[in-house]
Write a structure and sequence with these properties.
The structure is a homodimer of 185-residue chains. In chain A, the strands form three sheets. A five-stranded antiparallel beta sheet of chain A has the order 1-9-6-11-4, with no helix packed on it. A four-stranded antiparallel beta sheet of chain A has the order 5-10-7-8, with no helix packed on it. In chain A, strands 2-3 form a two-stranded antiparallel sheet. Chain A has four helices and eleven strands; from the N terminus they run H-H-H-H-E-E-E-E-E-E-E-E-E-E-E. The longest helix of chain A has 15 residues. In chain A, a hairpin with a 4-residue loop joins strand 7 and strand 8. Chain A has two domains: 62 residues, lambda repressor-like DNA-binding domains (434 Repressor (Amino-terminal Domain), Orthogonal Bundle); 107 residues, Jelly Rolls (Sandwich). Helix content of chain A is 23%, strand content 34%. In chain A, helix 2 crosses helix 4. Chains A and B meet through helix 4, strand 3, strand 4, strand 5 and strand 6 of A and helix 4, strand 3, strand 4, strand 5 and strand 6 of B. The first copy, chain A, binds a DNA duplex (30 and 30 nucleotides) through helix 3.
DNA sequence: TCGATTCGTTCGGTTTGACGAACACTCACG
DNA sequence: CGTGAGTGTTCGTCAAACCGAACGAATCGA
């Protein structure tokens, strides 16, 4: 039910991704992590099966949590209308369905809020930490929200997710409340 | 900044803890994971530095997310009624308040669901992965939920959190929907 | 008391991950 | 063109992870 796939390829991809994000070469990373560059080369090629210590030192050198290197990735604006939805779980003996909106990875930190809004424009230009993502499920009322220039109007049960590190705003069209999950890495 | 300590000892401890929780022997676990029991013996002893594949297969055999084996450790029923709440964020120039319900630590994995329930008892005895925690914010209707023998009735905007690894159930008193955040480590 | 079973640990042998050197390649400089 | 510094890859060597078998201890029946 869990453990979707052998993480060999995932590690290779994550490793390359994080290294390029840091803007350093294989040789440089090898030096910082105290490893042979040949080892890194093979790892990024998907060949090989690193030991915990090896992978750990890479996490340290890259400044990312260990689990970031072993679990997959996902962002963008995405809306799920009430009732629609992707993967639905249906309880065998029960009258309820649960719709998966966003799967979390271990390295993401998610804070859970309930948000109450009164009508009127309410900018939140603050543009949070880079890499943060917002998830909103409207509980009641109507809210227009999203990144500036790409806002969407939502009603009860509607879900939206969008990057939190760009200017965006919330605007209640009537007294409203919503569940907000703030995700930062 | 992160990466507190070499995870050698952590893995040894986590491995033993999870295995004993599953109530199986080293030999049995070795058989399920397709490893030599000698390997496990040494791993639990703290000797050795397992490869990713080895540790992964152990995670699968134990039915535990990979990261649970490599990261350290840290629940109860808690209810926040609509309008009440702990720390409230108030936007300076805006008409909205956000109430922090649950702060996420890194290393916890949180999946976001919307749940629709029809009236009638609906047991979910399944008792998910050990260490999992459920967070629920009711969007509409009325729901009675919580661990068996300790359920609470909730209305729109109410929040509850409780351990997900014990028998519990959802019971909609009328057609309802809710936001569910499933947290497992 | 003697198998028979299961447990966990210890001991050689084999596989393989990590290392370091050599390699081909590109770019900048003279 | 050299030549030097940078890149990433390939190859042989060595240490260590992993395996399988053998071991002592504990439990349970016959």
């Amino acid at each position: 039910m869990q453990q979707p796939a052998p993480p060999l390829a995932t590690i290779a991809a994550a490793l390359r991704r994080e290294r390029e994000r840091a803007g350093i070469s294989i040789a440089e990373l090898a030096r910082r992590a105290g490893l042979a560059k040949s080892t890194l080369s093979q790892l990024e090629a998907g060949t090989g099966n690193p030991s915990i210590e090896t992978l750990w030192s890479l996490g340290v050198a890259l400044g990312v949590p260990f689990s970031r290197l072993v679990e997959p990735l996902e962002t963008q604006v995405r809306v799920v209308r009430a009732g629609e939805g992707g993967t639905r779980l249906r309880a065998d003996q029960a009258d309820f369905v649960a719709t998966l909106l966003a799967a979390g990875s271990p390295h993401t930190r998610r804070d859970l809020y309930v948000m109450e809004l009164e009508p009127g424009p309410a900018r939140d230009a603050a543009a949070h930490i880079p890499g943060s993502v917002e998830h909103i499920v409207v509980g009641g009322g109507r809210i227009r929200t999203g990144p500036d220039g790409d806002t969407v109007e939502l009603g009860p049960g509607d879900y939206i997710t969008f990057p939190g590190d760009v200017p965006h705003h919330y605007e209640a069209l009537e007294p409203s409340w919503a569940v907000l999950v703030m995700e930062h890495r």
